[in-house]
Write a structure and sequence with these properties.
The chain has 71 residues and is mostly helical. The chain contains four helices and no strands. Helix 2 packs across helix 3 and helix 2 packs across helix 4. The termini are far apart. The model has no long low-confidence stretch (mean pLDDT 88).
Length: 71
Amino acid sequence: ISINPFNEFHSLDSVVKKMILSGENYNTIKDKAGLAAFEAAIEMCDGNKQKAAERLGIDVRTVQLGMKKKA
């Protein structure tokens, strides 16, 4: 059985379109998507930011700084 991983993300397109229609600009959309990725990875890694960063293929400092922007 072949599974297309993008089928799960069909709603991402809808979310981005809604954000554009509501007046969000590229940088805001990018920042919100990054924050969502950080939060999801941290949750998946039981709060471990180092493991979350490894899962995302980025430095842990990037996750820390990204989460700091949220505060």
